[in-house]
C-alpha cells in the first residue's frame, strides 16, 4: 500500500507511542485522524498541518461500542475512508493478582482488547468493500511473556494477538491485512521517573541493554501498513527481551 494520501486513524494518539506513530504516517504523506478521550489541543493539530496533510481530531471512548462506531463514521465523513487503523489506545492498572479487583481486571480488558474489537468491526465493512486496508494492533512483550503485577494487562495484550491472527484469516481474501506489534520497554514518561536502580534491573533483562524509543515503534508501524503481503504476524520490538 502506498501511504501518500491514505487516511490513517490512530487511537490514543495524543501522546506517547500513538503520537509518534501519527507523526511518522504524516511524514509519509498520509492524512491523520488524531484520537483521545479528551479534546485534541489546537497546538497539536498545528504540528500536523505543517506536514501539508489533512488532520482530523476525533475524541471518544474506544471501549464504548457505539462511540467507536461514531468515531469511525465521523472519520469516513471527513476523509472519505479509513485505509489504516492503528489500535493503540490502552491503559494499565497494575497490582498483584491477590490484590487485583474485578474492576481492575475488567477495565483494562475493556479498553485494551474490547476497544480494538469495537474499532476493528467499525472499519472492516468499508475496508473489505474497498478490497484494501491495514489494521495494526499494539500488543506488548508482556502479552508474550507475562509480567508480575500485570495479569490484567498481559491478558489483554495476549488476547490482542489471538484477535489479530483470527481477524487476519477472516479478511485476507479481501486484501485487508491485520498485524500486531509487541513493544518491549520503550522510553516514556513512565520510565523517566524510575530510579536508577530500577532502570538497572530492567535494562539487565534486555540483551541490547537499552530502552527502545517510541519513534522505532512508529517506524515499524508504518512499515507494516505498507507491506502488501504480510498479515497475521506479531512483531516484537524489544531489544531481544522476548527471544
Question: How is this structure best described in words?
Answer:
The protein is of the alpha/beta class. The protein is built from nine helices and seven strands, in the order βαβαβαβαβααβαααβ. It has helices at 16-27, 42-49, 65-79, 102-130, 141-145, 151-171, 189-192, 196-204, 214-226, and strands at residues 7-10, 31-36, 55-59, 84-87, 133-138, 176-183, 234-237. The longest helix is centred in the middle third of the chain and has 29 residues, at 102-130. The radius of gyration is 17 Å and the shape is globular.
List keywords for this structure.
alpha/beta; about 240 residues; 7-stranded parallel β-sheet; about 50% helix
Main pleated-sheet profile: 7 strands, parallel
Mean pLDDT: 96
**Tertiary shape:** globular
Give the proportion of residues in helices. Answer: 40-55%
Order of helices and strands: EHEHEHEHEHHEHHHE
Number of helices: 9
Report the strand count: 7
Radius of gyration: 17 Å
Strand arrangement within the widest β-sheet reads: 3-2-1-4-5-6-7
Strand content: 15-25%
Spatial gap, N to C terminus: 30 Å
- Overall structural class, as computed from helix and strand content, comes to alpha/beta
Amino acid at each position: 500500500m502506498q501511504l501518500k494520501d491514505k487516511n490513517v486513524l490512530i487511537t490514543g494518539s495524543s501522546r506517547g507511542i500513538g503520537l509518534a506513530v501519527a507523526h511518522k504516517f504524516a511524514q509519509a504523506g498520509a492524512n491523520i485522524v488524531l484520537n483521545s478521550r479528551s479534546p485534541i489541543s489546537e497546538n497539536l493539530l498545528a504540528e500536523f498541518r505543517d506536514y501539508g496533510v489533512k488532520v482530523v481530531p476525533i475524541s471518544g471512548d474506544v471501549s464504548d461500542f457505539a462511540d467507536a462506531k461514531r468515531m469511525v463514521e465521523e472519520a469516513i465523513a471527513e476523509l472519505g475512508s479509513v485505509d489504516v487503523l492503528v489500535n493503540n489506545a490502552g491503559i494499565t492498572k497494575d497490582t498483584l493478582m491477590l490484590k487485583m479487583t474485578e474492576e481492575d481486571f475488567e477495565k483494562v480488558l475493556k479498553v485494551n482488547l474490547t476497544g480494538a474489537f469495537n474499532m476493528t468491526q467499525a472499519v472492516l465493512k468499508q475496508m473489505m468493500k474497498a478490497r484494501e486496508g491495514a489494521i495494526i494492533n499494539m500488543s506488548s512483550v508482556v502479552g508474550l511473556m507475562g509480567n508480575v503485577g500485570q495479569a490484567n494487562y498481559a491478558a489483554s495484550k495476549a488476547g490482542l494477538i489471538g484477535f489479530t491472527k483470527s481477524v487476519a484469516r477472516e479478511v485476507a481474501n479481501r486484501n485487508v491485512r491485520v498485524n500486531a506489534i509487541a513493544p518491549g520497554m520503550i522510553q516514556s514518561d513512565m520510565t523517566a521517573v524510575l530510579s536508577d536502580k530500577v532502570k538497572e534491573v530492567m535494562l539487565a533483562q534486555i540483551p541490547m541493554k537499552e530502552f527502545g524509543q517510541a519513534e522505532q515503534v512508529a517506524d515499524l508501524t508504518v512499515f507494516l501498513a505498507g507491506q502488501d503481503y504480510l498479515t497475521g504476524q506479531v512483531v516484537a520490538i524489544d531489544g531481544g527481551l522476548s527471544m
